[in-house]
Amino acid sequence: MSILSKIRLKRNHIINFIIIIVVVYVAIATLNVIARNYQLQQQMDELIAENEILELENEQLRLEIAYFQTDSFVEKEARAKLNLQAPGEHTVIFSDLIPGPVEPPEPEPEQTFVEAADENIREWLYFLFRIDL
Question: CA 96 → CA 5, 62, 93, 121, distances in Å?
Fold first, then answer.
C-alpha cells in the first residue's frame, strides 16, 4: 500500500469517527428533547385536568348561586330561620308535643356488693334456664 492510500484510509477513519460522534450527539440530543417533551406533556395533562375540575366547581357554584337567588330558597330560609309565615297561614302548636318541665330522675339507692352479686345470679338463672326467683 502506498502512503497516499494509507493517508486516505486514516482520513476516512477520522471522518467516520467524526460522523459517529455527530450521530451519537444528535441521538442523545433528540432523546433529551423527547424526554423534555414527555415531561411537558405530563404537566400539561395535569393542568388540563385541574382546569376541568375548577370549571366543574365553578359551574356548581354558579348553580348554587342561582338556587340561592330563587324565591323558594328565600321562603324556605325565612320559614326555617326567622319563623316567618306566608300571608293567610296560621301557626298551629300541638301542646302535647311541647315538652313540660323536666324533673330530675330520682337517684337509685346504692347497691351493696352482695345485693349486686345476688341480682347478677338471678339474671343469669333467668337467662339460661328461665327460672325467675
Answer: 121, 44, 9, 42
Contact 31, 23 (CB under 8 A): no
Instruction: Give the count of beta carbons closer than 10 Å to the beta carbon of residue 75.
Output: 13
- Check if the beta carbon of residue 41 is closer than 8 Å to that of residue 47: no
Model confidence, pTM:
0.45
pLDDT tens for the chain, 133 residues long, are 577 677 777 888 899 999 999 999 999 999 999 999 999 999 999 999 999 999 999 999 999 999 999 988 988 888 888 877 778 877 776 666 666 777 777 777 777 878 888 888 889 888 888 877 6
CA distance 79 to 64: 19
What lies within 8 Å, CB to CB, of 125 at 6+ separation is 131, 133
Residue 99 neighbours by CB distance under 10 Å: 6
Residue 66 one-letter amino acid:
A
